[in-house]
Every structure is written in C-alpha cells, then in structure tokens.
Write a structure and sequence with these properties.
Elements: E1 5-8, H1 15-28, H2 43-54, E2 60-66, E3 69-78, E4 84-91, H3 100-114, E5 120-126, H4 130-138, E6 142-143, E7 149-152, E8 158-167
Parallel strand pairs: 4-5
Antiparallel strand pairs: 1-2, 2-3, 3-4, 5-8, 6-8, 7-8
Domain N-acetyltransferase: 5-169
InterPro entries: Acyl_CoA_acyltransferase, GNAT_dom
Pfam family, one: Acetyltransf_1
C-alpha cells in the first residue's frame, strides 16, 4: 500500500467501498449526513450513478484514498438555481488535520473553474464546526449576507449554521 493519499474520480468498481465509507462517515460525525440516508441504494445503483456523474458539467464526485482504502469524499451537486453547485465533504476522523480536506476542496474548485458550467459553489456549515469554517475561508469561500439558520444534526440537536459561497471566474 502506498503512503501517499490520492485524490481521484471514483470508478464504478468503487461503488461498494464508497457506500461503506459513507456509512462510516455518517456514524462518526454529527456534522455529516446524507440527504437520502433513509432510502439506501445498492452497489449496482451506486455504480450507475458514478458513471453518470462523470459525464455531468454540474456534478462532481471525488474520493481521497490511501491505496485501495477510501477515506474521504467530496461532492458538488447543482442547486435549484442551476448555476450554483452545493459542496459537501467528509474525511474519516483518523485522517483529519492532514491536509486531505484542503486537497479535496482545491481539486473541486479547479474542476468548477475549468470544467463546469457553474458560476458559484455554495455550502451550509455548522458554526460549531470551526475547522471546516477555517478551511472554507482559507480556500476563498465567504459568508453570505443570509442570516444564520438553525439545522438539525443527526442526533436531533438544533445547531446554528451559516451559508458560504465561492464565486467562480
């Protein structure tokens, strides 16, 4: 196994490992949740989705891996505005503070700027997730004028969150 973390597009053959990673990430973090967690999909369905995402100018999915082991994921999905993508990112806790999140976001912003049809990348981040907020600010995201909102985490706790946006050229 290589000691270097790679950032890459997932392949259809990664579907089972990606679903397992998403399950681990959801269990270990109360700031990460899946929009369709109550409607699980099969590895075959995930493989089909991975192939479709590769062809999209408004969707992106990246994985961070150490050898064959997936340890982080980043997605950009279009919002109802159509020209704004929503960023989501998660890295397994044992790999936090090693620059993996920065590498994922950096690669995603490069894609958004050079290969996407998007004009901006936005996200909602819980204010208690200070490391994530610092990462986004370091990468050029700015808080919007939208007032903070209350979101419900996976434990049912109501927490404050803010909207941030990265304008593309």
């Amino acid at each position: 196994m290589s000691d270097e973390v790679a950032i890459r597009l997932p392949n259809a053959t990664d579907a089972k490992a990606l679903l397992a990673l998403l399950e681990r990430l959801q269990q270990e973090s109360d700031t990460f949740s899946l929009a369709d967690a109550d409607d699980p999909i099969s590895a075959a369905q995930e493989a089909d989705q991975l192939e479709q995402i590769k062809e999209s100018p408004v969707h992106l999915l990246l994985v961070a891996c150490l050898g064959d082991q997936l340890l982080g994921v980043l997605s950009i999905s279009p919002t109802p505005q159509g020209n704004v993508g929503e960023l989501g990112i998660a890295v397994e806790k044992k790999y936090w503070h090693l620059g993996i999140g920065t590498a994922l976001v950096d690669e995603a912003l490069y894609w958004a700027d050079t290969a996407s049809d998007l004009q901006a990348i936005g996200l909602i981040v819980q204010t208690r997730n200070v490391p994530a907020m610092k990462l986004y600010e370091k990468m050029g995201f700015a808080r919007t004028q939208t007032p903070p909102e209350t979101v419900t985490d996976d434990d049912g706790e109501h927490v404050q969150a803010v909207e941030m946006v990265y304008q593309l050229n």
